[in-house]
Protein 1
Amino acid sequence: MRLQLSPEDQAFREEMREFFTTQVPERIRSKVIAREELSKEEWVESQQVLNAAGLAVPGWPVEWGGKDWTQLQRHIWHEEMQLAGVPQPLAFNASMVGPVIANFGSQEIKERFLAKTANLDIWWAQGFSEPDAGSDLASLRTTAIREGDEYVVNGQKTWTTLGQYGDWIFMLVRTDPKAEKKQQGISFLLIDMTTPGVTVRPIQLIDGGFEVNEVFFENVRVPVENLVGEENKGWTYAKFLLGNERVGIAQVGASKRNLATAKERAKERGLLERYAGRIVGLENELLALETTALRVAAHSDAGKPHPASSVLKIKGSQLTQAVSELLMDIEGPAALTSRDARVFLNNRKVSIYGGSNEVQRTIIAGTILGL
Amino acid sequence: MDFTIDSEQRDLVAAVRGLVTKVYDSSETRRAATNAEPGFTAWERLAEMGVLSLPFEATPAEVSLVAEELGKVIAPDPFVESIVLAGGLIEAVGSDEQKEEYLDAIAGGEILPVFAWAEPGRDWAADAASVTFSDGTLSGTKASVIHAERADLLVVSAATDAGTGLFLVTEGYTAETERTHDGSRAATVTFDGTPAVPLGAGGDESAAIARALDLARIAYGHEALGAMQVALDTTVGYLKTRKQFGVTLNTFQALNFRAADLYVSLELARSVITWATVVAADENSSDADIAAAASQSALQVNRAGRHIALDAIQLHGGIGMTAEYSVGHYASRIIAIGQLVGDEAFHTDRLAATLTEHDVLDPIG
Ligand SMILES: Cc1cc2nc3c(=O)[nH]c(=O)nc-3n(C[C@H](O)[C@H](O)[C@H](O)COP(=O)(O)OP(=O)(O)OC[C@H]3O[C@@H](n4cnc5c(N)ncnc54)[C@H](O)[C@@H]3O)c2cc1C
């Protein structure tokens, strides 16, 4: 057992801190810290600064821009990035489609996409959920029927986050409608969103914003070389992706930073005593989350999330919500018109997506407790 | 930061587990032990194995690993009370002669010391107020002192002109013993002109007392953790076998989800409690670092502990309420540990006092 970072890891942490706080533009970071929405250009600019320094996709295989880091170093990278208010590399690119292509794609498809994905030259959208396929994702119905060298895609995706910025969308589609089990017959297909027949329609959320969309596909013709891996093996790739997504939702560093903001505000308003109990309780729970993240990281094999990562998803999402609730409460009546109340409402999403917290409980009860 | 344990530590765990699961091989055996005097039966064998000298020879990591194994069988032996806390104080504060006189005998199981510190009507404050020392004698009352009646040696905190000092007492006091809800014994100890000798130089020992209490809290955390683990395992096992409506209980998602929530609480608590031990074991940690870590650990003991203890009973139904079945005893012990380390409000206050000294809390040294 050891508490101190080794001198190398300490140096690594300082290097990360120095980079994030000096190289990523302050105007972008201060927006993140104020919990404001970023424009597409700001997302791209920030990710390109990271990528130029080789810091956008450390989890990828080294030959595609990844880093040969320890799990602890990866944790430090993530934590320092969030503490500094650096927007995380776009999850759809960096933690979802990129690793799937790198692990399961052909050499040709890797060369076509990976570099541009790391650099956010392509903005990816995630086309998994459908109106009737949410938690029960495998019941999805969007079809891709092979005709010569093309698939013809018909159906609808929904909840597509930032689909309005999307250049490409990675999709789960049904390529074998006759497969015995619903998990079979699903493929992982990449679609250029400018292809004729693709329509994006915004959905307004309770915070007033437009971050999700419906995406309709009407006889969309997609070249077969846009298939990732093997036909009808898409469910395997999707499970790999969802496991990674789960781990990413914990957002320890961001919650810590937001809690520090809450403490600062309570102090400024002379309300520290009133809120001290809640702040102490949340610091304790964030400590539990972070030390659990460190424990889980230390025991996960490359690329395969530890089963206890469901603990991180559940608690991480709850703490994101609880900290934003505190920020809102400290504002008092001013919360009626504040940004923080909208962020609080918006954060209801984190216990719904990435496998809802009920789905995570099912995973814990089934795969860990054997119930 | 690194939570892994080495092969020597693994061997220690295996040896202690082997011993205590043999001595307390069932809930019945343990209950029989707590109902007879003095209320525990593994002490001599723990001494033979060298476990009782660990706090004087090894690091807090080994101490915590042992405490966790004791917690898994809710062994009633006062390892934390007598060895970590009372023995720890003699080691930290005692003169060379006192250490020579007592430490080997304590480690060998020949002398059982306890620390009398809490006072009636007060919370978990480390200073003494109502017990006072003057002219070589102690006066006043301490409660609740675990195993005071069985103890051969009392270490007593008492108010002096110089602050709170520590004193050794072997006779001349009364102990009114009651059973605690977790099967142990606690006494109200009254001193009235009781002859006492200072432990160590006889000055203000507030800092040493606070540190010893915090190290004990961290060890208690592991005892609670071991008990929480078994309470959950027992509950999960029960859900898989108990039948109602013609099916096993794990057919009902509402119950499985509650078990999943207990697992979440357990794993998060495990991380903080283990982290606290890592802080205690780190030579660069200050007393303030250890105090903060002890409070963080105590918060988890209280919150996660109650969550797991109480839902373990609920998910068992009526059988969970019985003295015959194990799970209620685990619940009782987990709650008792919360009462020994200090409750949620106490530790929240302690942590609130230093809240503005950091912006974010960083667990890594
Ligand atoms: C803001 C936001 C952004 C999103 N972004 C994307 C995106 O970019 N791309 C994408 O593909 N998807 C996205 N999603 C979709 C998200 O993954 C789904 O909302 C999620 O999988 C839940 O599906 P559902 O909404 O259909 O709810 P349902 O599955 O209908 O669930 C309704 C309720 O029932 C519970 N429930 C369902 N099944 C069970 C069960 N077996 N046992 C117990 N409880 C159960 C759920 O937990 C939930 O509480 C996003 C969602 C939101 C809210």
Note: Residues 205 and 211 of chain A are 8 Å apart (CA to CA).
Protein 2
Amino acid sequence: MAKIIRKSDSFYPIYEHKSGAKDVTHYCPGCGHGVLHKLIAEALDDFQIRDRTILMSPVGCSVFAYYYFRVGNIQCSHGRAPAVATGIKRVFPESIVISYQGDGDLAAIGGNNIIQAANRGENITVFFVNNAIYGMTGGQMAPTTLVGQKTTTSPRGRSVANEGYPVAVSEMLATLKAPVYIERVALTDAKNTNKVRHAVRKALQIQIENKGFSLVEVLSACPSGWKMTPVQAKQWITDYMCKQFPLGVFRDTSAEIEPSPAVKNEFISHDLFKKLDIPDKPFRAVKSETPPVNYQNPRLKIAGFGGQGILLLGLGIAQAGMQMGYQVSWIPSYGPEMRGGTANCHVNLSNKRIGSPVVSQPSTLIAMNLPSLEKFECEVIPGGLIIYDSSLINRPPARKDVEVLGIPATKIADDLGNTRIANMVILGAYIARTSIIPRQVVVDTLPVFIKRKNLVPLNVKAVDKGIEYVSQ
Amino acid sequence: MGKQLIKGNEAIVKGAILAGCRYFFGYPITPASEIAEAAAFYMPLVGGTFLQAESEVASINMLYGAASGGIRAMTASSSPGISLKQEGISYCAGSELPIVIVDIMRGGPGLGNIAPEQSDYNQMVKGGGHGNYKLIVLAPNSAQEMCDLTMLAFELADKYRNPAVILADGFIGQMMEPVEFPKAVEKIPEKEWALHADADDEKKLICSIQLDPDVLEKHNLKLQEKYKKIAAEVRFEEYYCDDADLVLIGFGVVSRVLLSVVDILREKGQRIGLLRPISLWPFPSFQIAQLAQKIKHFLVVELSNGQLVDDVKLAVNGKKPVLFYNRMGGIVPSPEEIIAHIEKTVKA
Ligand SMILES: Cc1ncc(C[n+]2csc(CCOP(=O)(O)OP(=O)(O)O)c2C)c(N)n1
Ligand code: SF4
Ligand SMILES: [Mg+2]
């Protein structure tokens, strides 16, 4: 009686995506891809994981893997299958995610993506088809092309001088700590094919048991690219490829890891304001008397050395200003220029909608070092205010058409035992001189932006010293 | 609701989480890094996932994978990083994946600098990747809008199955302003096309390849039909345009400067207004064309070499003069500088 060979349940009954031909694959005769597909599909059947499997079809001859596999399918860009696989696996930890990739895809353009996915220990299974060539694009050189092997882009044979040596992916990835299982197998004779079958299963089993990353490198024939018959091609794998890429297990820690069930993602949607540190009390502005006209709606530029707390000073004014019901904006100088260099920020407080947050013509300049004063003094509007740290700046502002307030902020801060709170002394001086913000509002808002809570009382003291200095 | 003084970049993350986003894939770059940092901090607190990818190329592809699962996911970067993402963005557009991409623009070309520019206009609004696709592009000009438009971006992305972009500049990202956060979105639309790691998945395919030219043309036509529908989502703000002779046009931080310009010149009795595109695509072409009927001239101000102005000119279609003022390299012009330019070039 003839044995009925049934198509695997993990294959579509008809390859209907493919235009024209039915039930023949688009692979060339003797191509390794088809055989590997079959071994994977059988494993999906046997483990009964087809329903929850999601397969990455890469760019390469297996771009149409989704024609065949009756699973969830994602077609990826060239080399990025491990990244795409990471994305979907993180959404469905309970799924079985397979990244199926060629050697150009995995070892050339996507080299970093596979290294990083392996190194993160993504709980995915990678089937890596090494055919030492770019099959799909017509037989160009791959990173795995053998030395001396002729391809359309190594017409005189791969030369070490020009192209270097073939990349040994399995050996390389096996140096990483996270991968659980890495084996190289070959689609040649029945015995080796059986080893491929075994490796495919083992790699999937590891994912089912939630143990981590596994990769099976499959030496595979590309008769078309190699310009050989299927029989010659198989022989070439044995004679040449296996010498360059020895078969075997390069890493296997699977026995040391306990199987665990995959845990489904649970999104949290309650108490979001609390989790996001958003105050959920309704906002109520503090009422106070209006400041003198020349101090209303201030546009401040605050400048000094990095480390003087320039940005924090601006933030203090903005934060308290907001509490007063003003529209406010704060822009810092940002990025690497801040390191050890100068710092400045622009702050607006206004009864009206704020236009430009960038302060080009400040009504108030706070200068905490000489370069800042020299640079920005000329920008202040006539009738504006310049506050400067007179303990660091020995040259008072030259402008005669502005109001000038010198305060030895750094000295006062030093006397309080901490140079770094000179900014808060200035803050006190500013609010005392302009009556723009009552002391209590500043004191109440300090804890919002001072990260180390134990420093709040000292900062309040500094603010008070500033107020005191101006009021004398 | 509570009010919070917060950086635009951080407001994006809080807005995203309130909009139901639970996945963030990113790679550090100034001036966008606070977005990744805030996501790294907050995502795990809400059962979400933050992953620092190995590159922008990887992060957009992680997003591609995650969005295939129908959840709300995002990435953020700045100009050079966006250039790297373009292939992936094209794939997302082709596969019709609803994702949100934030671009906090910096100076270019090349490594340029980290100061605010708007020179990614073309690569985001016109499509910097290959193929006939469009991205929904929203341009916030305040910290409040960084939150609000991020939430809107997720809604529009889902509604049209299309990538949506928040296009802001370094200043809008770095600036702190008070933000009133809205209530969280309660229900995210079901996506029947998405993979769910279940038996139904065999009927689904996330894919942008169509070898048959007839089929690919059909797919393209379908996308173009969709883009026509998205045109209804145009958003803009008008400020004193009703009786204006001169209308200024600019977005992002520039629109804030232009607001000051209008305030100052209105006080002097000049008939000047501002049109601020909030959606850069769809572009408020119709509104600009209507203004062209009644005003005397436009002045476009941008932090790039004449990218936004092209779209304005197309909309005005030669009916009125379109004047142009720009700065590049990360310089934001002051209101005074623009007023001086107006006084020099605009004849009453
Ligand atoms: C970004 C990008 N670059 C180049 C290509 C062209 N391309 C398609 S397949 C391929 C090589 C695939 O080779 P491999 O991964 O070895 O797969 P095989 O066909 O050998 O199975 C290349 C370079 C592409 N599609 N995308
Ligand atoms: S070109 Fe090579 S890899 Fe591609 S289908 Fe043919 S034999 Fe297989
Ligand atoms: Mg190959």
Note: The two ends of chain B are 46 Å apart (CA to CA).
Protein 3
Amino acid sequence: MELFINLTINGLATGMLIFLLAAGLTLIFGLMSVLNFAHGGLFAWGSYAGVWLYLLTNSFIAGIIGAIFIGILLGFITEKWIIQPVYGNHVQQILITLGFMIVLSELLKVIWGPNQIAVTPPAYLTGSWEIGNILIIKYRAFIIVVGLLMYGLIYYMLKHTKIGLIVRAGVINKEMVQSLGINIKRIFLYVFMAGAAMAALSGMLIAPYAGVIHGNMGMEYAILAFIVVVIGGMGNITGSILAATLVGIIGSFMAYYVPELSLAVNMLIMAVVLLFRPQGLFALKG
Amino acid sequence: MNSLLSLKNVETYIDQYHILQDVSFEVPAGEVTVLLGRNGAGKTTTLRTIMGLNPPKKGEVAFKGAIMNGLPPHDIANRGIGYVPEDQGIFGALTVEENMKVAMKKESDDVMERMEWILNLFPDLKTFWKKPGGLLSGGQKQMLSIARAYVNETELLLIDEPSKGLAPIVVEKVMHSIQEMKQKTTIILVEQNFLMASQIGDYFYIIDDGRTVFNGRMQLLREDESLRRKYLGIA
Ligand SMILES: Nc1ncnc2c1ncn2[C@@H]1O[C@H](COP(=O)(O)OP(=O)(O)O)[C@@H](O)[C@H]1O
Ligand SMILES: [Mg+2]
């Protein structure tokens, strides 16, 4: 029983980190029809820049703020110079964002060296609470709380603000949104920057959780995030958090019982979803 | 020149296809100008060219005397042009209220007054205010699309085949409301239903194979059956 709960909590924490990565990806795809393979690079940059600042200042909060800042900045640059020239062309998007992803990863190694960097949580998030027989690791609980808070924030923004309304309308019909006098390019930029900030936040949060960061971490998690976007339905935030939870928990149990099949099972779920419900497991329409 | 909108020798390509080859017309303020022509003649493309959705490659599109070639669609909309596309472009998952709110630039007195006026014209929209747009009937979607295009400081409405796919009695209703809107704004109406077009329209242009080939006051077409047969294939 304790094992079951521990694996579940572990899976939830991983799920939240994947969700933060997938949230931007799914909105960017849903709204802009852009396949952004550079997303994992933004995640890795958030991780490195945040950890660097964390180790430098000894303040975890500073690390988080730094990661979000670098995410917004890189999001701005990526959207303006990498994505904008290739709107509407999926082949070019895949090539240029994959290329940019590699550039981002290599730059990390140039700046911070090729070796792994070890990271631990700050003192106040180290250790665990004991509830009965169950050990709840503080840092995992922290990740789950942050993930849920971010979901709540995105949900609120989408449902109750004008820009959220425009994003929802844009996911349905971009041309109509423009024809009603809205500069959709500016909305694209904001959404992209927000998505990049969440990816960078995810990268920062994952560092003390995984214990080490390395230059290729982006690709690893980006694959999981893509799986989540497909399972959850493109453009669907609630679908994303549900799918991310599913992928996280499956990953956690598989890693314990049959580690070599962990990624394969998630791939399999995605394939089955694509075959039978290509609009996503949690899509409302269709 | 006192026309609100004018197109001069406009040519538009979609990908490599030369769709509009020579379209010219004038839209006087306060009138309903009807674009007629067979299926595939280029009527929808003409409206999309005005909106900047399929920008013109040659020629000139001018609104209130200012040339609009190359402007993005949102700039064109914000100059006072409202678009009601052929498929109505309703945001199906959004409520009627939200559909209106996407369009509303600000909540100025003028916009609120327009909102009130248009909701009185289309009381159904008030009834279904909190319902998803996707659940409306065909006629109600048409009304929502028109209301949404009108609510800002719109001076020119582009309406693409509003009678398409509607039952005759609903067509009657939609046409009646467009007649009402005539008091408030200038309209370009694309319409296959000649009877309806001839009741509302003041002036017509016929588009054939991407060219404006004929024009005149609506009355002319009402009276001349051979013209109708020649250009529209109807009697
Ligand atoms: N996206 C497109 N790609 C290629 N051809 C198109 C496209 N859209 C319209 N066309 C062609 O342009 C012509 C004019 O279409 P359209 O403006 O929709 O005509 P209408 O509204 O008068 O029926 C048609 O021959 C149509 O096949
Ligand atoms: Mg048409």
Note: Strands of chain B lie at 3-14, 17-28, 32-36, 58-63, 66-67, 81-84, 156-160, 186-190, 203-208, 211-217.
